[in-house]
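Box 3.1. Reading complex inputs
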Amino acid sequence: MFRHLLKKDDQTSLASELEVENFSITHLDAILDIEKEANPTPWSKKTFENILNRRSLSFVCLLKTEIIGFCIASEVLDECHLQNISVKKDLRHKGVGRYMFGVLFQRSKLFGIKNTFLEVRESNRGARNFYDKLGFREITRRADYYKTQNGREAAVILRLTH
Ligand SMILES: CC(C)(COP(=O)(O)OP(=O)(O)OC[C@H]1O[C@@H](n2cnc3c(N)ncnc32)[C@H](O)[C@@H]1OP(=O)(O)O)[C@@H](O)C(=O)NCCC(=O)NCCS
């Protein structure tokens, strides 16, 4: 169903030039730079280190030798939790996010994943459209889940059934 996400012949996208590597300690600094420009309340170094200590589906995305994005996800039984996905600001809208999700989808298959879940800020229109295009659908909301500069905002909980 998601084969097209990995297609390498799309002239408008960077997909043919991208590679992935499993998330490791050597990637931490580059990931933190991307996170800081992507997230209004960025994850700390400690949070990423904790992920490294757990079994997970996480990886970074490279263009030539540069880390330009990352995907943090974990699996429990037949469920995947997509915790964070980010692309370097100046390389967005070129198919990198779609490519990374395609890689995650393929990895998930190896683990027998049946559903992928995630939370996204209600105000994050760009990411919500991205997930909508991938086939995610809203299942519920959690009020006041995320901090904002002025208060709090809801999380929209999305699911993709594989
Ligand atoms: C969300 C994110 C990962 C998408 O990555 P990307 O490489 O820019 O996305 P792609 O180029 O692969 O886009 C795939 C589809 O999503 C849609 N999309 C992506 N970003 C979008 C945006 N800001 N607004 C509207 N649609 C968007 C595109 O229209 C595209 O569909 P199309 O090919 O049919 O036009 C990237 O914008 C990002 O890093 N955002 C900041 C971090 C973030 O919010 N992560 C999600 C946390 S829950």
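In summary: The beta strands are 18-22, 59-63, 66-76, 79-87, 115-121, 137-147, 152-161.
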